Amino acid sequence: MRKKILIVLLFTFVILTGCGKEIESEKPKFAATILPLYDALSEIGQDKIEAVLIVPPGASPHTFTVTPAEIKSLQGVKAIFENNFGLEEWIGKLASNVTEAKVINVSESFKQTVENHNGNPHLWLNPDFFVQQARVIADTLKESDPQNAGFYEANFNGYSSNIVDEASKLKESLKSVPNKNIISFHDAFPYFAEYFGLAIIGTVEQIPGHEPTPKEIANLENTIRDKNIKVIFNEPQMSKDLVNALIEDTGVKVLTLDPLGDGETRTTYIGLMDYNIQEILTGLK
Ligand SMILES: [Zn+2]
To answer: Which residue of 39, 50, 110, 121 could cross-link 29, Cys pair, CB 3.0 to 4.6 Å?
Structure first.
């Protein structure tokens, strides 16, 4: 009799606590700081994981500040994949609030490359480098969930070969462009330019997130005139006021390059790459 009551009580308790409480996902949860890494994570993990994006589309990782809502959404995360090299300066603060999560630098093997580029962190924009970053994500998922290692490996292989194929097609499409000089808004594209054979001859912002000084603007306008630059590539994450001033002063055309993805029309790495090369083709032809 007592036992019966206990069971009934237990049952009621389960029902009561079951109501109103969010159903926790059974899947292991992982996070990525920026959209391209999130794309790799989602495509490699697919339905076996829960993937969280930290810097929302439209925000700049250089100037991002962590909110309590973000910290809440990261509870239970096993690992956070970061590009590193100063891109995500806020990661330390975030990690100290999500202590169970390991922060994984997907760019560990690029130390020397980054040093050779004065610390420039925008490695993912070179598709070959990005595939190596995705490799780190795949290896981490395999280690953390060995039962599904074959699944993650197959997904990585499909994902990376699609990227490599598309990148080489896009590279080919740029061969016919005679003038490959570009000015970008901030210094996000050196690795991208190296891969695709473009020459970046200037940037609007010398320090990401910092407006250039009047002297820097004057120098840039001289470069635009001297080198007969017709197009400047702005970025959706950056302020447009400055670019408008440049248009007024020099008459350049402004197109938009996107280093991260906007989450609407550019939600995947391939979509991002396609878009950027199309803009460059439009601007330089
Ligand atoms: Zn940047």
So the answer is: 50
Q: What is the mean pLDDT of the chain?
A: 89
| Domain endpoint, select from 171, 187, 204 | 171
C-alpha 48 – ligand 1 centre gap (Å): 31
pLDDT tens-digit map of 82-97: 999 999 999 998 989 9
Question: Do both 215 and 271 map to the same domain?
Answer: yes
For residues 134 and 182, membership in a common domain is answered with no
pLDDT digits (tens, 9 = 90+) for 41-56: 999 999 999 999 999 9
Same domain for 126 and 195, yes or no, is no
**In this predicted model, which residue has the larger pLDDT, 69 or 40?**
40
Instruction: Output the CA 33–ligand 1 centroid distance in Å.
Output: 13
User: Which residues form the domain of 227?
Assistant: 176-284
Between the CA of 60 and the centroid of ligand 1 the distance, in Å, is 7
- For ligand 1, the distance from its centroid to the CA atom of residue 195, given in whole angstroms, is 17
Separation of 144 CA from ligand 1 center, angstroms? 30
- Facing residues of 29 across strands? 50, 77
